[in-house]
Structure formats: structure tokens, C-alpha cells
Design brief:
The chain is an alpha/beta fold and 372 residues long. It contains 14 helices and eleven strands. 45% of the residues lie in helices and 16% in strands. Helix 6 packs parallel to helix 11 and helix 10 packs across helix 11.
């Protein structure tokens, strides 16, 4: 899908009876007051660093439109870092909703990155057995992935995203202009998820990344809008086909994530999610090549693209990662059944592959700098 110069483009997520749109483009956030006309109060959930530039602007939108639009019920904050994605945070949010008298016709507006979206979305999913949520992603990673599709959840000490619920938003509003305030490391990490969609088979996206990488890295709003729209359209198709990950199709969106989640958990979340995904993509490419599922040159091209986007392709040299611990964590991954399950490319496309041979795992671990 290509954005129209006249304004943002809306990509439909056509779930029967629960359709919603992912609006992408400059000015997308300004559609929020009209989108929520006639509903109850808005409960904003955000992070302190995001509050000043973005939430204040959104609240100002409501005030300028007058009382015919939504009443702002309150602003709650989620701490920074993966430690905030916890059951404790969800309990705190739900208790605050109860103290403020949040009802079923009210709506949670999650303004932030994946941590805010996942945690606020899960709180909305379980409070009163489910109230409406709007996702307003402010990071590239959230715009292209975590804000879309209704996956909400929090972490346990035993692993990432092990507690959660499917709770679709009523809308996603992705405005690339908010990325101008995003720290360079956060933006770059989002490119790991973007590259994933290219490797899943979006040839047009792959061409954009290969030929316009400088514009992407420079955060050119028009280029970023096209990139986000491509990713959103891809994910929307998969979500409609396999909303609850029961057919195996949606699990393929976890390309690179098996190792990524293990790296995050074992490393105490020192790596950002997108950084871990980029390393996981290298691992998956080398594993697929070692199993002769793809040609080594295809793996080389994928790794070269990741490097061109400025992404890490190996674990940090000072990261004390134990291979046996990583293998144990990967066996606990949500898509596995006690086996070692990876999403790998191959002659029939991307699919789930169980228990790769040890020699192939050796090659993949070596490729990302993890010794036996």
C-alpha cells in the first residue's frame, strides 16, 4: 500500500465483527478525537519521557475540539525498561482504573512504545473483562509490529511475554513525525522488525530498504510512512488469517525471535528487542543455510542488508551468554512444545522447523558470536 500525498493511509484489519484500521502517515494522531467521539472517558497510559511532547499534544487536541469529544479521565505512567512489563504494573494500572471509576464504555489510550502498548493493552484486556484500547505507537518497532494484531502481555522471570491475552485495539494511529524525538538507538532497533518483514517475503519492502536505506535511517517521513505501511499491511493480512496463532501462519512472524527472546531474558534485557531480533535474524539465516534450506548467498544478502541499516549482527563482545542457558530458554518459547522450534526460510517459504541438527546449530551460534 502506498500513502496518498493528501494525508495518512488507513490499512484495514478485517477481523469479522471487530474490524479496525491502522492509520499511517503525517497527522494520523489528529484523528483520535473524532475516532473516539461518543465514547466515555479516555485513560491515557504512557511513559514519563513520552508524556511531555506527545501526550500533552494529544490532550490539547481534545481541549481544542471542545466537550463534544472525549473527556480526559487521567494519565497513568509505566516505568521505562522491560522490568515494567510485569504483572505488578498491570495490577497497579487496574487498581488505578478502579479508583478513578473507569467503566466499560471508557477507553484506554496507550501512547508509547512496545512496553506501554503491551502492558496497557493487557490491563485493558483484563479490566472489567475487557475495555476498549487505542494504540498510538511512538517507536518504529511498535508502529510496524507490536501495536498491531492484539497481542498484549507481560514478562515473567522465566521468560518474555509468557502472560498475556489477545485483545484487539479499536484503532492504531502511527504518525512518523513523532519518531523525530526518538533516540537513535531506539529507532535503529525498530529496523530489526522492519527487516523481518522484508525477509518474510515483502519484495517491495526489501527494495525500499536496499535502495533507500539512507532515507530510512535519516527518518524521512515520506519514506518511513511507506515502510510502516508495508509492514502494517503485511501483519494485518497475517492477523486476519490466524488471529490466535492456531494455524501456524502467525507464528512465522516470529522469524528471528526464538533466539531474540532468549538473548533478552538471559542478558537481563541489556539488548533492545529490535537489536536482539536483528541478531536472531542472522542466526536464523545461517541456521537455514546450514540445513541447506536456503543458499548461503541468500543468507549473506540478508546479513548485508541488516548491516547496511546499521544493525548489530553479533552479540556484544562483553555479553556473558551461556549457550546451554539460551537453548533452555528457547525450548520454553511460546511457539514450541518442549522442542527446539525455529521459524526458518526454505524452498516452500518461511515455516516452523523443529530440532535442527547440532552441526547446524553450531554454525548458527558461531555466526552471531556465541561459542559452544
Amino acid at each position: 500500500m502506498s500513502p496518498d500525498s493528501a494525508g495518512p493511509v488507513t490499512i484495514p484489519v478485517g477481523l469479522p465483527g471487530r474490524e479496525y484500521g491502522v492509520t499511517v502517515g503525517v497527522g494520523a494522531i489528529e484523528r483520535l478525537p473524532d475516532l473516539l467521539r461518543g465514547r466515555g472517558r479516555a485513560m491515557f497510559v504512557t511513559q514519563t519521557a513520552i508524556m511531555l511532547p506527545h501526550v500533552a499534544n494529544v490532550i490539547d487536541l481534545f481541549e481544542r475540539r471542545g466537550n463534544e469529544h472525549l473527556v480526559v479521565g487521567g494519565v497513568e505512567h509505566v516505568d521505562d525498561g522491560e522490568a515494567a512489563k510485569s504483572l505488578g504494573t498491570v495490577e497497579r494500572l487496574c487498581r488505578r482504573f478502579a479508583q478513578l471509576g473507569v467503566r466499560r464504555n471508557d477507553v484506554v489510550v496507550a501512547i508509547g512504545g512496545g512496553i506501554v502498548g503491551d502492558t496497557a493493552g493487557f490491563a485493558a484486556a483484563v479490566y472489567h473483562r475487557g475495555i476498549a484500547v487505542v494504540q498510538v505507537p511512538t517507536t518504529l518497532l511498535a508502529m510496524v509490529d507490536s501495536a498491531i494484531g492484539g497481542k498484549t502481555g507481560v514478562n515473567l522471570p522465566e521468560g518474555k511475554n509468557l502472560v498475556g491475552a489477545f485483545h484487539q485495539p479499536i484503532a492504531v494511529l502511527a504518525d512518523p513525525t513523532v519518531l523525530g524525538t526518538l533516540p537513535a538507538r531506539e529507532f535503529d532497533a525498530g529496523l530489526g522488525e522492519v527487516a523481518k518483514y522484508a525477509f518474510l517475503g515483502d519484495d517491495e519492502l526489501c527494495t525500499i530498504l536496499e535502495t533507500e536505506s539512507a532515507a530510512v535511517v535519516a527518518r524521512d517521513p515520506e519514506t518511513v510512512t511507506r515502510v510502516v505501511a508495508r509492514c502494517a499491511a503485511f501483519k494485518a493480512r497475517v492477523v486476519v488469517e490466524d488471529e490466535h496463532e492456531t494455524r501456524g501462519t502467525r507464528a512465522t512472524l516470529n522469524l528471528g525471535h526464538t533466539l531474540a527472546h532468549a538473548l533478552e531474558t538471559a542478558g537481563g534485557y541489556g539488548l533492545l528487542h529490535g537489536e536482539a531480533v536483528a541478531i536472531g535474524l542472522v542466526f536464523a539465516a545461517r541456521l537455514a543455510a546450514a540445513m541447506e534450506r536456503i543458499h548461503p548467498e541468500q543468507a549473506d544478502a540478508q546479513i548485508a542488508l541488516l548491516a547496511a541499516l546499521g544493525l548489530q549482527t553479533r552479540v556484544p563482545a562483553d555479553a556473558p551468554l551461556d549457550r546451554s542457558e539460551l537453548l533452555a530458554l528457547m525450548r520454553r518459547d511460546k511457539k514450541s512444545s518442549g522442542r527446539l522450534t525455529f521459524v526458518l526460510d526454505g524452498p516452500e517459504g518461511v515455516e516452523l522447523v523443529d530440532d535442527p541438527p547440532t552441526v547446524a546449530l553450531d554454525a548458527a551460534f558461531a555466526a552471531v558470536g556465541i561459542r559452544a
